[in-house]
Amino acid sequence: MDSQPQRLLLVEDDAELGAQVVADLKRAGYEVDWQTRGTAQHEDLGRIYALVILDLMLPGVHGLDMLKQLRARSDVPVLVLSARNETLDKVRALKLGADDYMTKPFWPDELLERVRARLRRPTLARDGRLDVGRLSLDLGARKLWLDGREIDVTRVEFAMLSMLAKRPGEAISRAALAAEALDPERDGTERTLDVHVSRLRRKLDGGDMIATVWGIGYRLEATKAP
Question: What is the pLDDT of residue 1?
Answer without folding.
Answer: 35
